[in-house]
């Protein structure tokens, strides 16, 4: 007779995401791991007097979602109480944005450095051109810094620039830049971190011993409500390590964290690859690089120009504008050459097709120089303008991709009509990646868009924007493929497939309970399926 389990879920529709046993009706949890998966009759043998039995009444169970590219330690601050939230998901119109900014300025404490996050003229139609002069008029008596919704640009008024210590003599940090006028003076605009971080300065207070736990706990609650049980932090800063590790090991954590430390000019990290491989709640698995920027700002490296439209003019792009990369080919080669040989997985943010070519070239050289790295799983992140031919080359190199498919839902109409025309039809073409044989995951890049794995599945399957416009239907995925990209394939991308991502005996009991089966509901309604509960190690972390 089987020993009693702590938790048994029966009378459900269990989608295990395991090839050998894809469906079941029940599962048992013992010691934080899946102890049995099968029929109600088989699994009920695990019930004892102290077993918690949950009757699912036909609801669907999936492995807990894996957010392969998030920013939890950034989101907990940008979506925290000290920063004004002006994102399009919060403020749908320009009028709402400006009203919220004016109200914050009117009620600011003396000497306060005000910060706002989420400015997006492409979605908040009618926003004025933003520059230091505009911010000075809006807020003449306080430092004010505003970050674009993409996180790739920021602006400060005169007092903010002065408080941040940015002058005409301040050098551009590697991989980023300050905009300057014809006289060489800073205009208040910055592109890419760490220049944007300097413009934001004291507007965004760093978490400290007094508030860190509360901020991180709130972030974990947000992720658990979305059904997420593992999150990758693709912008992790080494100065947060001690606090994040302590929280992860405290018993308060509701989500496993897999982190990618930001590459730094010194091209080194104090962590040894694999030294925390036994820590199920916190592991550093890689290094993060930004090869180019954001399509919404105009600084992605493409072989083709932006359109000349009211939308491109609203973000300050001249006719025929083409963006570029953050690094030269030589600079990127040096960064990868510093981190790859010791054993780190490299995750490289890239959108433009020219930037993709550069990154693939550098990856190819690194792989050729180090044939001992037979399972490197080098990553490309977002991959907006990546072409089917480039996915084919990525597959040949063994490179994996994490796709920001939610772009199509929120910005799909703007991508086609305002920015790239017919080129946008292949934006984040997940179907082409899968056809080429590239393992993929989906992500929300939160706080850019809310953590919403089921919406990602819907978008991948339908390639439909909020307005109902279909964009590149030939690049759709199946529901099964999209669910894998949010579970087992995403776990594989994080080197976590042996612990999470599928519901198999011996794996961690991380799971999510849905009100309906994504395979059954109309594809355009997958993103609206209610999440009823989330479990980590068999412990309920969210229940509606």
Report on this model:
The structure is a single chain. With 544 residues, the chain is an alpha/beta fold. 28% of the residues lie in helices and 22% in strands. Strands 8-15-16-17-18-19-20-21 form an eight-stranded parallel sheet. Strand 15, helix 8 (241-248) and strand 16 (256-262) form a beta-alpha-beta unit. The model has no long low-confidence stretch (mean pLDDT 95).
Key terms for this structure?
single chain, 544 residues, alpha/beta, 17 helices, 24 strands, 28% helix
Radius of gyration: 23 Å
Strand numbers in spatial order across the main sheet? 8-15-16-17-18-19-20-21
Distance between the terminal alpha carbons, to the nearest Å? Answer: 34 Å
Q: What is the count of helical runs?
A: 17
Q: How many distinct beta strands?
A: 24
Helix content: 25-40%
* Multimerization state: single chain
Quick take:
The chain is an alpha/beta fold.
Question: Topology, pairings included?
Answer:
Layout: E1 7-10, E2 13-15, E3 23-24, E4 26-30, E5 33-38, H1 40-43, E6 52-55, E7 60-63, E8 65-70, H2 72-78, E9 84-85, H3 94-106, E10 114-119, H4 132-138, E11 144-148, E12 153-156, H5 158-164, E13 177-180, E14 186-191, H6 195-200, H7 212-225, E15 228-236, H8 241-248, E16 256-262, E17 282-290, H9 310-314, H10 329-339, E18 345-350, H11 353-369, E19 379-382, H12 388-397, E20 400-403, H13 406-420, H14 430-436, E21 440-442, H15 453-462, H16 479-485, H17 488-493, E22 511-514, E23 531-536, E24 539-543
Parallel strand pairs: 1-6, 2-7, 8-15, 9-10, 10-11, 15-16, 16-17, 17-18, 18-19, 19-20, 20-21
Antiparallel strand pairs: 1-4, 2-3, 4-5, 7-22, 11-12, 12-14, 13-14, 22-23, 23-24
């Amino acid at each position: 007779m089987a020993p009693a389990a702590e938790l048994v879920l029966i009378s459900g529709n269990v989608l295990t995401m395991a090839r050998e046993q894809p469906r079941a009706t029940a599962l048992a949890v013992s010691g934080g791991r899946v102890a049995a998966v099968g029929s109600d009759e088989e699994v009920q043998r695990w019930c004892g007097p102290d077993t918690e039995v949950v009757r699912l009444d036909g609801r669907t169970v999936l492995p807990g979602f894996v957010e392969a590219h998030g920013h939890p330690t950034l989101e907990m601050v940008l979506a925290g109480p000290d920063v004004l939230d002006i994102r399009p998901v919060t403020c749908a119109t320009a009028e709402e944005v400006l009203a919220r900014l004016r109200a914050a300025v009117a009620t600011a404490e003396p000497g306060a450095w005000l910060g706002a996050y989420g400015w997006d003229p492409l979605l908040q139609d009618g926003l004025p051109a933003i520059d230091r002069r505009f911010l000075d008029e809006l807020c003449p008596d306080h430092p004010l810094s505003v970050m674009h919704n993409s996180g790739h640009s920021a602006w400060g008024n005169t007092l903010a620039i002065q408080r941040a210590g940015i002058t005409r003599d301040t050098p551009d940090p590697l991989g980023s830049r300050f905009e300057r006028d014809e006289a060489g003076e800073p205009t208040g605009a910055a592109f890419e971190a760490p220049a944007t971080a300097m413009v934001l300065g004291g507007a965004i207070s760093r978490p400290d011993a007094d508030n860190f736990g509360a901020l991180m706990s709130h972030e974990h609650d947000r992720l658990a409500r979305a059904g997420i049980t593992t999150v990758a932090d693709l912008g992790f800063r080494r100065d947060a390590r001690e606090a994040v590790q302590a929280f992860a090991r405290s018993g308060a954590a509701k989500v496993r964290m897999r982190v990618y430390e930001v590459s730094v000019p010194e091209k080194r990290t104090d962590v040894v690859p694999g030294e925390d491989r036994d820590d199920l709640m916190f592991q550093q698995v890689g290094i993060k690089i930004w090869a180019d920027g954001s399509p919404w700002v105009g600084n992605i490296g493409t072989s083709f120009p932006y359109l000349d439209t009211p939308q491109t003019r609203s973000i300050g792009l001249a006719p025929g504008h083409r963006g570029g990369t953050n690094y030269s080919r030589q600079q990127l080669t040096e960064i990868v050459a510093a981190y790859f040989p010791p054993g780190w997985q490299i995750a490289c943010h890239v959108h433009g097709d020219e930037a993709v070519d550069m990154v693939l070239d550098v990856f190819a050289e690194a792989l050729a120089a180090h044939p001992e790295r037979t399972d490197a799983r080098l990553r490309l992140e977002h991959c907006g303008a990546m072409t089917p031919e480039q996915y084919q080359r990525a597959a040949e190199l063994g490179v994996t991709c994490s796709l920001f498919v939610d772009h199509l839902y929120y910005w799909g109409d703007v991508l086609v009509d305002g920015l790239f025309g017919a080129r946008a039809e292949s934006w984040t073409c997940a179907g082409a990646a899968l056809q080429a044989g590239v393992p993929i995951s989906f992500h929300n890049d939160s706080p850019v868009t809310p953590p919403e794995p089921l919406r990602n599945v819907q978008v991948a399957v339908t390639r439909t924007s909020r307005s109902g416009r279909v964009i590149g239907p030939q690049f759709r995925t199946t529901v099964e493929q999209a669910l894998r990209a949010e579970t087992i394939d995403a776990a594989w991308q994080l080197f976590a497939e042996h612990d999470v991502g599928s519901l198999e005996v011996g794996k961690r009991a991380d799971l999510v309970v849905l009100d309906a089966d994504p395979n059954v509901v109309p594809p355009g309604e997958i993103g609206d399926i209610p999440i009823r509960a989330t479990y980590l190690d068999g412990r309920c972390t969210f229940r509606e």
